[in-house]
Amino acid sequence: MTDAIPRPTEGDVVELILDDHRVFEELLRAMRDETNDRDALRQALAQLLVAHGEAEESKVYGQLRRKDAIDEEEVEHSTEEHDEGYEALLTLLQVTDVGSGEFGDGVHEVSEKLSHHMDEEERDVLNPARTDVTDKERARLGASWAKERNRLLDDDCGRIDNVRRLVERATRPE
Ligand SMILES: [Fe+2]
Ligand SMILES: [Fe+2]
């Protein structure tokens, strides 16, 4: 599971994003099981969550906005939800005992934030991407998103100091 973060390089952006959403659910399910290597699983989740979300923000949301598929409010709302996810992730990464109730609580909190965001994104972002954007554009966005996501994975973007930086970026006053 932990070595198995897929590395697609092309595809329809909607399908690629949905594939990752399924992986998030699998990682969270595996992390609920105390007999698994929870530390390795949380590292994998951190890498994928940051790479997935940051690549959406830089390569997908703004592009869908420019095509008038989604509005600015949707971009801001989705970005805020990413930040809430990173905050819950940071709390989980800071738990020292992976067998503790605290770890379970941390998994629960990440699950809540992520399932909320995936539901909204699948309904309010991916639906307009399906209907208001051409197949060709979705393929172009898919390749661009995948390239950035893979670059971030290579860059070890889920390390704790980087997750902390993302949380601080979100909470810094304007
Ligand atoms: Fe997503
Ligand atoms: Fe997202």
Describe this structure in words.
By secondary structure, the chain is an all-alpha fold. It is 78% helix and 0% strand. The chain has helices at residues 13-32, 38-66, 72-93, 101-132, 135-154, 160-171. The relative contact order is 0.19. Residues 17, 21, 52, 56, 121 line the site of one fe (ii) ion. One fe (ii) ion (FE2) binds at residues 53, 56, 78, 82, 117, 121.
Principal-axis shape equals: globular
Bound molecules: fe (ii) ion
Number of strands: 0
Question: H/E order of the elements?
Answer: HHHHHH
How far apart the termini lie comes to 39 Å
Mean residue pLDDT: 96
Beta-strand portion reads under 5%
Number of domains: 1
Number of helices: 6
Question: Which SSEs are present, and which pair or pack?
Answer:
Blueprint: H1 13-32, H2 38-66, H3 72-93, H4 101-132, H5 135-154, H6 160-171
Helix pairs in contact: 1-2, 1-4, 2-3, 2-5, 3-4, 3-6
One fe (ii) ion binds next to helix 2, helix 3 and helix 4.
